[in-house]
Amino acid sequence: YFFNQPTMNNIFLFITQLLLSDDNCICVNSAYIIGSIIEIENGLELFLSIFTVNCTIDVIQRLCQLLTHSDFDCVLNATGILGTICSSKEGRDFILNHTSINDIVSNIAMLLNSINVWIAGNAALVLARIPIEGIG
Protein backbone atom coordinates (compact mmCIF):
# COMPACT_ATOMS: atom_id res chain seq x y z
CA TYR A 1 0.00 0.00 0.00
CA PHE A 2 2.71 2.47 1.01
CA PHE A 3 4.63 2.21 -2.28
CA ASN A 4 1.49 2.74 -4.37
CA GLN A 5 0.83 6.21 -3.00
CA PRO A 6 1.01 8.91 -5.70
CA THR A 7 3.30 11.05 -3.55
CA MET A 8 5.81 8.27 -2.84
CA ASN A 9 8.24 9.48 -5.51
CA ASN A 10 8.30 12.93 -3.91
CA ILE A 11 8.66 11.47 -0.42
CA PHE A 12 11.62 9.38 -1.60
CA LEU A 13 13.21 12.42 -3.27
CA PHE A 14 12.77 14.54 -0.13
CA ILE A 15 14.29 11.87 2.11
CA THR A 16 17.19 11.47 -0.31
CA GLN A 17 17.81 15.23 -0.33
CA LEU A 18 18.41 14.92 3.41
CA LEU A 19 21.52 12.85 2.58
CA LEU A 20 23.06 16.16 1.52
CA SER A 21 22.73 17.59 5.03
CA ASP A 22 25.84 18.66 6.93
CA ASP A 23 24.10 17.53 10.12
CA ASN A 24 25.34 13.99 10.81
CA CYS A 25 22.16 12.98 12.62
CA ILE A 26 19.94 14.00 9.69
CA CYS A 27 22.27 12.31 7.20
CA VAL A 28 22.43 9.08 9.24
CA ASN A 29 18.69 8.95 9.78
CA SER A 30 17.82 9.61 6.15
CA ALA A 31 20.30 6.94 5.02
CA TYR A 32 18.76 4.51 7.52
CA ILE A 33 15.26 5.22 6.18
CA ILE A 34 16.39 4.77 2.57
CA GLY A 35 18.17 1.54 3.47
CA SER A 36 15.08 0.23 5.25
CA ILE A 37 12.80 1.06 2.32
CA ILE A 38 15.00 -0.53 -0.32
CA GLU A 39 15.36 -3.77 1.64
CA ILE A 40 11.79 -4.44 0.55
CA GLU A 41 11.64 -5.54 -3.10
CA ASN A 42 9.02 -2.94 -4.03
CA GLY A 43 11.12 -0.29 -2.31
CA LEU A 44 14.23 -1.17 -4.29
CA GLU A 45 12.22 -1.16 -7.52
CA LEU A 46 10.82 2.27 -6.66
CA PHE A 47 14.29 3.58 -5.76
CA LEU A 48 15.74 2.39 -9.06
CA SER A 49 12.80 3.71 -11.08
CA ILE A 50 13.21 7.15 -9.51
CA PHE A 51 16.98 7.52 -9.53
CA THR A 52 17.85 5.90 -12.84
CA VAL A 53 15.83 8.59 -14.61
CA ASN A 54 15.88 11.50 -12.14
CA CYS A 55 19.17 13.36 -12.17
CA THR A 56 18.19 16.09 -9.71
CA ILE A 57 19.94 14.14 -6.96
CA ASP A 58 22.96 12.00 -7.77
CA VAL A 59 22.30 9.53 -4.99
CA ILE A 60 25.11 7.16 -6.03
CA GLN A 61 27.66 9.99 -5.98
CA ARG A 62 26.42 11.02 -2.54
CA LEU A 63 26.67 7.45 -1.25
CA CYS A 64 30.21 7.30 -2.64
CA GLN A 65 31.04 10.46 -0.68
CA LEU A 66 29.50 9.03 2.49
CA LEU A 67 31.87 6.04 2.25
CA THR A 68 34.65 8.39 3.37
CA HIS A 69 32.62 10.19 6.05
CA SER A 70 34.07 10.54 9.55
CA ASP A 71 30.85 9.28 11.17
CA PHE A 72 30.76 5.47 11.38
CA ASP A 73 26.96 5.40 11.16
CA CYS A 74 27.00 7.37 7.89
CA VAL A 75 29.54 4.95 6.45
CA LEU A 76 27.66 1.92 7.75
CA ASN A 77 24.38 3.05 6.22
CA ALA A 78 26.01 4.00 2.91
CA THR A 79 27.66 0.58 2.59
CA GLY A 80 24.39 -1.08 3.54
CA ILE A 81 22.46 0.84 0.89
CA LEU A 82 25.04 0.03 -1.79
CA GLY A 83 24.98 -3.64 -0.78
CA THR A 84 21.20 -3.72 -1.09
CA ILE A 85 21.25 -1.92 -4.44
CA CYS A 86 23.78 -4.48 -5.69
CA SER A 87 21.45 -7.32 -4.71
CA SER A 88 19.50 -6.92 -7.97
CA LYS A 89 20.66 -7.01 -11.57
CA GLU A 90 19.11 -3.59 -12.22
CA GLY A 91 20.84 -2.17 -9.17
CA ARG A 92 24.22 -3.60 -10.15
CA ASP A 93 23.80 -2.20 -13.65
CA PHE A 94 22.89 1.20 -12.17
CA ILE A 95 26.06 1.26 -10.06
CA LEU A 96 28.36 -0.32 -12.65
CA ASN A 97 27.34 2.27 -15.24
CA HIS A 98 27.73 5.21 -12.86
CA THR A 99 30.61 7.63 -13.35
CA SER A 100 31.69 7.07 -9.73
CA ILE A 101 32.18 3.29 -10.04
CA ASN A 102 35.98 3.49 -9.73
CA ASP A 103 35.73 5.66 -6.62
CA ILE A 104 33.06 3.40 -5.17
CA VAL A 105 35.19 0.28 -5.62
CA SER A 106 38.27 2.05 -4.26
CA ASN A 107 36.44 3.42 -1.21
CA ILE A 108 34.71 0.11 -0.54
CA ALA A 109 38.01 -1.78 -0.80
CA MET A 110 39.56 0.52 1.80
CA LEU A 111 36.63 -0.14 4.13
CA LEU A 112 37.51 -3.83 4.27
CA ASN A 113 40.13 -2.75 6.84
CA SER A 114 37.63 -0.81 8.96
CA ILE A 115 37.84 -1.33 12.70
CA ASN A 116 34.04 -1.52 12.61
CA VAL A 117 33.21 -5.11 11.64
CA TRP A 118 29.74 -4.14 10.42
CA ILE A 119 31.23 -1.66 7.96
CA ALA A 120 33.85 -4.18 6.82
CA GLY A 121 31.14 -6.81 6.39
CA ASN A 122 28.93 -4.50 4.34
CA ALA A 123 31.94 -3.52 2.22
CA ALA A 124 32.73 -7.18 1.57
CA LEU A 125 29.11 -7.77 0.55
CA VAL A 126 29.23 -4.92 -1.98
CA LEU A 127 32.50 -6.22 -3.45
CA ALA A 128 31.06 -9.74 -3.63
CA ARG A 129 27.90 -8.61 -5.43
CA ILE A 130 29.37 -6.18 -7.97
CA PRO A 131 31.22 -8.78 -10.10
CA ILE A 132 28.14 -10.99 -10.45
CA GLU A 133 27.47 -9.12 -13.69
CA GLY A 134 29.76 -9.74 -16.63
CA ILE A 135 30.90 -6.11 -16.72
CA GLY A 136 31.58 -6.03 -12.96
Descriptive report:
- The protein is mainly alpha-helical and about 140 residues long.
- It has a single domain, classed as Leucine-rich Repeat Variant (Alpha Horseshoe), CATH 1.25.10.10.
- It has helices at about 10-15, 25-40, 40-50, 60-65, 70-85, 90-95, 100-110, 115-130.
- Helix 2 (about 25-40) runs parallel beside helix 5 (about 70-85) and helix 7 (about 100-110) packs across helix 8.
- The radius of gyration is 14 Å and the shape is globular.
- Keywords: Signal.
Which properties best describe this structure?
single chain, 136 residues, mainly alpha, Leucine-rich Repeat Variant
What does the secondary structure layout of this molecule look like, with pairings?
Layout: H1 8-17, H2 24-38, H3 41-51, H4 59-66, H5 72-85, H6 89-96, H7 101-111, H8 117-129
Helix pairs in contact: 2-5, 4-5, 5-8, 7-8
